[in-house]
Amino acid sequence: MIHWLGSSGSRTLFLLVLVAVALLLPSLVCAQQAGHYLGGATGLENGSGAPPGFYATYLGYVNNVNELKGPEGATLVKPDITVAAQMASYSMTFEKKFLGADYGWSVLIPAVNTRFTANAFDSSAESAGISDIYFAPIVLGWTKGKANFLLNYGFYAPSGSFDPASPLNPGLGFWEHQIQAGTTYSIDKRKLWNTSFLTTWEINQSKLGADVKPGPMFTGEYSFGRRFFKYQMNAGVVGYFYHKLSADSGSGVGPLVVGVLDRSFATGPELKYTNLKWRMAFDFRYEQQYGVEAKTQGPLFVVTITYLKLFPPPAAPHK
What is the mean pLDDT of residues 41-65? Predict the structure, then answer.
């Protein structure tokens, strides 16, 4: 499993909607500060660490936002927003064990492009640029029988362009600590059927140039799949649920969002294909968001292409 992490696209799209909503419906503005991690960024077998090797990955994440939900889940407005996050990820897992686990690191460089159009407002806007870079100096993976376990620590640096006076920013403007823990379990002896669960905990610092501290956030991602085609293909159902654990704080928090906790859910299919001879892996998933409160809603698409170089190279399959 390749370890995927998010960017700041969800925060940018939220601000774009709020600018338009604030102009026409100021009493209905209800959005919360979003974090860096994007729900749905991982899928099948996301509770497993990558085996020893080097990995270079392109990840494309597209969220077509078609609704802005209020604190009780009511639809406030139906905008037309496309958020496209283009991410480059590099990671390495070493052959030497640490605490009985495979040890590695990863870095993620996201570029975000957000396009907003709304016929109801007769307006449009676009923002693009490098977002906040993520670095995980601790990535640990264990294998015990039919179960794999994963534990990561990383942080986002506010490297993306951010102006607190502007609603269009590629960066979020704050440091964030991120802890992940998860597991993947092979259900049958042949290890064809598999299920996984990954938890992500976001602990945020105050925003630069603004008296706002985003509350801590939790994301749980799950999967259930089956392998085909000589174990090279894995197909199944994936999903996630997200909830802010405590409200944003600081004098910069708008009076209409004080105490509000946003949440969202999503479910959909995923298909993964890995060819060790080519040293390539491909992944596609689609998830539809639902049960959203104080947040944007719409379908999301994720595509990943990974170059992998395993240490040592895998043995040739028996004929």
Answer: 94
